[in-house]
Amino acid sequence: MDVLTALLLVHLIPVSTPKNGMSSKSRKRIMPDPVTEPPVTDPVYEALLYCNIPSVAERSMEGHAPHHFKLVSVHVFIRHGDRYPLYVIPKTKRPEIDCTLVANRKPYHPKLEAFVSHMSKGSGASFESPLNSLPLYPNHPLCEMGELTQTGVVQHLQNGQLLRDIYLKKHKLLPNDWSADQLYLETTGKSRTLQSGLALLYGFLPDFDWKKIYFRHQPSALFCSGSCYCPVRNQYLEKEQRRQYLLRLKNSQLEKTYGEMAKIVDVPTKQLRAANPIDSMLCHFCHNVSFPCTRNGCVDMEHFKVIKTHQIEDERERREKKLYLGYSVLGAHPILNQTIGRMQRATEGRKQELFALYSAHDVTLSPVLSALGLSEARFPRFAARLIFELWQDREKPSEHSVRILYNGVDVTFHTSFCQDHHKRSPKPMCPLENLVRFVKRDMFVALGGSGTNYYDACHREEF
Asked: How far apart are CA 259 and CA 81, in angstroms?
């Protein structure tokens, strides 16, 4: 079982929120506020946040800085947009979702029609193999398993438009005559991640020129490139999965619910659980399609709520036990190390790779959030975005700072590497050297032991 498949069994797990807080302010908030948020979990509210159904353009904090700061580079990690399920509920009819793109069908985006037209002319695009064999946009009347939907395309057209307004129109991150080497684009080998990246870029770039678009292929969902071998990381993952399994055994209501659903679809409970029914149920929920029925009855909202509530409880325990944090530190280090390397080159005045885009999965973003110390951040919704901004102080040109934003919210001072700095300094950002020191050395402190670098932490004997 690869890491992506394994962690899909662990994931889809948001954090608690207020029951009746659907104002724009609370909908946007990703870090629970202990003063205003009651300890009541509403699984339906959480599921709505996870769906991220496109509506009015959101307000965001990207690009906010004092006037004497200059934006130097931007590094964007996205989860792909809304997709068709990866699993089916046994012996039920698949949800009927149309994965062709229709300009006048909801959800709508003004650039959708032009996006389809542009993608259909892109067959000459040059991508790193095997990406060149993937379709550039979804196009099946009945979605294929895991296929991006129209909702998913619109989510990322919106993300791209939002980032364009901030980074290009306001901050002039790319020059008018921008070139291919000023973008760094990387994606896993799934059509949903490639298509999500293309949709975001189409919304972002003022001139989508195929000759300037080159996606690199990343075989690992952790984006660990040549640094993927890490035995201790896999041991943390095994222990985390064991913890999850034991928690599920203790939940009698969850077992009862799985038993009821298994009777409805007439399969053994074990088989139903293995089919990961929440993945399919979330698709029904996000697309407002009725849950499946058989002659034995219907899967219903109460079943959905029980499974969703257990996921939220699982997330709470996961934070307390810290096993996932160990996995995350070792899983996220390679991609964080690449990112600070790119930032450091930008501080030297190099003009390449000013905008980096990693089109990825929930199992990519979640370890990065955890490794940064953002344990309270919600589980990555569809089309989630995590952004690292690099800034230069024009009054002190040798000084560079970073900001971290998650779904438009500035979470810089919630991170492990900048919490203390925020208490000591009035500056609105975090010094780049804090992030560099954290990635190169300090993040391994969370693992205990004596290892202060990635190789030693991955191979230590005493774990």
From this structure: 32
What's the CA dihedral at 41, 270, 324, 370 to 10 degrees?
-50
Q: Kindly state the tokens that stand for 97.
A: 């979702």
- How far is residue 457's CA from residue 444's CA, in Å, rounded to a whole number? 7
CA distance 428 to 423: 11
- Which residues are CB-contacts of 410 (< 8 A; sequence separation ≥ 6)? 61, 64, 403, 404
From the candidates 11, 75, 80, 333, give the one annotated as an active-site residue.
80
Give me the amino acid identity at 419: Q
Which one of the listed residues 42, 279, 314, 362 is annotated catalytic? Answer: 362
Global pTM?
0.90
Sign of CA dihedral 96, 99, 102, 107: positive
98 in catalytic set: no
Pairing of strands 385-393, 69-79: antiparallel
**Is 181 designated active site?**
no
Answer whether CATH 3.40.50.1240 is correct for domain 57-230+323-459.
yes
Per-residue pLDDT tens listing for the chain (463 residues): 333 333 333 333 333 333 333 333 333 344 554 444 435 679 999 999 999 999 876 779 999 999 999 999 999 999 999 999 999 999 999 999 999 999 989 999 999 999 999 999 876 678 999 999 999 999 999 999 999 999 999 999 999 999 999 999 999 999 999 999 999 999 999 999 999 999 999 999 999 999 999 999 999 999 999 999 999 999 999 999 999 999 999 999 999 999 999 999 999 999 999 999 999 999 999 999 999 999 999 999 999 999 999 999 998 899 888 999 999 999 999 999 999 999 999 999 998 999 999 999 999 999 999 999 998 888 999 999 999 999 999 999 999 999 999 999 999 999 999 988 767 777 789 999 999 999 999 999 989 876 789 999 999 876 5
Ordered alpha helix ranges (H), 135-276:
150-163, 191-204, 231-250, 252-265, 269-274
Helix 191-204 to helix 112-120 angle (10° resolution) is 120
Rounded to whole angstroms, what are the CA distances from 282 to 43, 95, 255?
11, 11, 19
Tokens 């929440």 found at: 278
Q: Which two tokens stand for residue 64?
A: 């906010």
Helix orientation angle between 231-250 and 252-265, rounded to the nearest 10 degrees = 80
Q: How far apart are CA 324 and CA 367, in angstroms?
A: 8
Domain locations along the chain = 57-230+323-459, 231-321
